[in-house]
Design goal:
The complex is a heterodimer of chains A (245) and B (205). Chain A is mostly helical and 245 residues long. Chain A is built from 10 helices and 2 strands; from the N terminus they run H-H-H-H-H-H-E-E-H-H-H-H. By secondary structure, chain B is α+β, with helices and mostly antiparallel strands. Chain B has a 5-stranded antiparallel β-sheet. Classes of the chains: A mainly alpha (245), B alpha+beta (205).
C-alpha cells in the first residue's frame, strides 16, 4: 500500500486550491509594526477563523454536544476506537517514511490486533496489551525531513494549519482508508461521524480556550505552532536545543 | 571526660540537624516536582468535591501545595516582557494578581479531571552547577501520554517553577504574545482591564 505516491486528481486539486489561496493571501497580507513574522497573512487567517467559528457555533458544536450527551459512553468509545484504529495504520506508514522502525512496527501491530481481534477496530485490545501508539501524520513526516512549516494558515472547516501541513493534507486524504469505500452514502456518513466525534473530543479543550485566552485567534495560533514545532523537534532529535531560552 | 562526651553528642546532634536542614533546600528539582505532583494528584484523587469541579477547593489546593513552589512574579514579568520595567509597582501587583486568578481558575479545571492518571518522570539532564533546569514528565491516562514539562530556577528558598509546558506549549511564551497584543493596542492599563474582565466572565460561568 503506497498512499504517498502521487494521486493525479488530488494533486491537481491541491495545486488549484493553493493558487486560490495565494491570490486570497496577497489580499490579506499583514502589514504594520506589530505583524507577526510567523503569520504574514493574519487578516486573511482571522477572516477564515471567524468563518470557522461561525460554522462551529451554528452547526458543529451543537451536534457534537448532542452526540456527547445522547450517545452512550460505550458506543462513543467504540466509535473513537474505530477511527483511532484507522489512524494507527497511517501513523505506521508515516513512521516507516520517517525511518522509525519501532514506531512503525508498534502502530502496525496495534492496527492488526485491533482489526482482527477487536471487531474491526471497535475494541482497543492493543492498549490493554500495552502496545504503544505514536500518532504521526504526513505533515510531521515532511517536517522531519526538513521541509519548513511556512506561514500559519487557517483552513476553512479544518482550522489551524501551516502551508506545509495543508499541502500534506492532500496526501493524507489518499492515505485515508475511508476514501476507498465504494458505498458513497455510507462513506459520507462515516466522514461526518468522524468529524462530529473529533469535535466532541475537543469540547473540553474548546471551553478551556474560551476561558484562558484574551484573544482566541492568537492563542490558538501560538499554541498550534508551538505544539507543531515541538512535535517535529522531537522527531528530528533536537529536543535539547529548545531548552536554551 | 563527661563534658567532652557531651560536646561530642551535641556536635553530632547539630551536625545531623544541619544535615537535615541542608537536605531540604538541596532537594533536586526533579525530586521536588515529583513530590509535589504526587501530593497534588493524591489530594485530587482523594477529594470528591474537587473531582466534581469545586473551584474553591481546587484553588485552595493550588494555593497551599503548588504556589509556594512557583516564582510567580518571574512568570508574570516574563509574560509582560519589556513593558514590565515601565510598569508602576501597583500595576505590577495588579498584573500578578489578575494573571494568577486567570491561570488558577482556568487550568485547575483540568486538575479536577484527573482520575486514573499516573505520572512518569524522565531523567534530569542538568549539570550539578546549573541554576535553571527543565524537568520533563508525562501524564499517562487513557490514550496517548501528555507531555508536561517545568522550567525551574534555583533560589535561596529552593527550586521554584517559572514556566510550564503542556503538550509542547510553554505557558509564558503563549501569554507573552497575548499580553503584547493587548499592550500594543490598549497599553498596560488596558491589559489589566482585559484580564480583570476575563476573570469576571470566567467567574460567572
Amino acid at each position: 500500500m503506497k498512499p504517498w505516491l502521487v494521486n493525479g486528481e488530488a494533486l491537481r486539486r491541491c495545486v488549484s486550491a493553493w493558487l486560490v489561496l495565494c491570490v486570497l493571501a496577497l489580499a490579506g497580507c499583514a502589514t504594520g509594526p506589530h505583524a507577526n513574522p510567523k503569520d504574514p497573512i493574519e487578516p486573511f487567517n482571522r477572516g477564515v477563523q471567524r468563518f470557522n467559528d461561525g460554522v462551529d457555533e451554528a452547526v458543529l458544536k451543537p451536534v457534537a454536544t448532542a452526540y456527547r450527551e445522547v450517545v452512550p459512553d460505550l458506543v462513543r468509545t467504540g466509535v473513537s476506537n474505530f477511527f483511532s484504529n484507522l489512524r494507527d495504520l497511517w501513523s505506521s506508514v508515516n513512521a516507516a517514511l520517517q525511518l522509525r522502525p519501532q514506531e512503525a512496527v508498534e502502530n502496525f501491530m496495534r492496527f492488526s490486533v485491533n482489526t482482527f481481534w477487536g471487531i474491526g477496530g471497535l475494541l482497543d485490545i492493543a492498549t490493554e496489551m500495552r502496545i504503544e501508539r505514536t500518532t504521526l501524520d504526513f505533515g510531521q513526516t515532511l517536517g522531519r525531513w526538513g521541509v519548513p512549516s511556512g506561514p500559519y494558515l487557517v483552513l476553512p472547516f479544518m482550522g489551524p494549519s501551516t502551508v506545509r501541513d495543508a499541502v500534506a493534507m492532500g496526501v493524507e486524504t489518499s492515505g485515508d482508508l475511508l476514501s476507498g469505500m465504494d458505498h458513497i452514502p455510507s462513506r459520507n456518513s462515516l466522514y461526518a461521524l468522524r468529524v462530529v466525534e473529533a469535535r466532541a473530543n475537543l469540547l473540553r479543550a474548546g471551553s478551556l480556550l474560551d476561558q484562558a485566552a484574551l484573544d482566541k485567534y492568537s492563542f490558538t495560533r501560538d499554541a498550534y505552532l508551538q505544539r507543531r514545532e515541538s512535535q517535529i523537534r522531537a522527531l528530528t532529535g533536537k529536543e535539547d536545543e529548545e531548552d536554551e531560552e | 571526660m563527661k563534658r567532652r562526651e557531651f560536646a561530642l553528642h551535641l556536635t553530632a546532634l547539630l551536625g545531623v540537624g544541619a544535615l537535615g536542614v541542608a537536605h531540604a533546600s538541596d532537594e533536586a528539582p526533579d525530586a521536588m516536582v515529583k513530590r509535589i505532583s504526587t501530593e497534588v494528584l493524591d489530594a485530587v484523587k482523594a477529594d470528591a468535591a474537587i473531582q466534581a469541579g469545586d473551584v474553591g477547593r481546587i484553588t485552595a489546593l493550588v494555593d497551599s501545595k503548588i504556589m509556594p513552589n512557583v516564582n510567580f512574579s518571574r512568570m508574570t514579568a516574563s509574560a509582560v516582557g519589556r513593558f514590565w520595567r515601565q510598569a508602576t509597582p501597583e500595576q505590577q501587583k495588579r498584573l500578578q494578581d489578575e494573571f494568577k486568578t486567570l491561570l488558577v481558575r482556568t487550568y485547575s479545571g483540568a486538575l479536577g479531571e484527573v482520575k486514573e492518571h499516573t505520572l512518569s518522570f524522565k531523567p534530569l539532564r542538568a549539570k550539578p552547577e546549573d541554576t535553571e533546569v527543565v524537568v520533563r514528565s508525562e501524564v499517562r491516562g487513557r490514550g496517548e501520554p501528555i507531555q508536561l514539562d517545568y522550567r525551574l530556577e534555583k533560589t535561596a528558598g529552593g527550586w521554584k517553577i517559572y514556566d510550564l509546558n503542556v503538550l509542547g506549549v510553554w505557558l509564558v511564551e503563549t501569554y507573552r504574545s497575548q499580553f503584547a497584543q493587548e499592550i500594543n493596542t490598549k497599553g498596560l492599563d488596558g491589559l489589566i482591564a482585559s484580564l480583570a474582565q476575563r476573570n469576571k466572565a470566567n467567574g460567572k460561568s
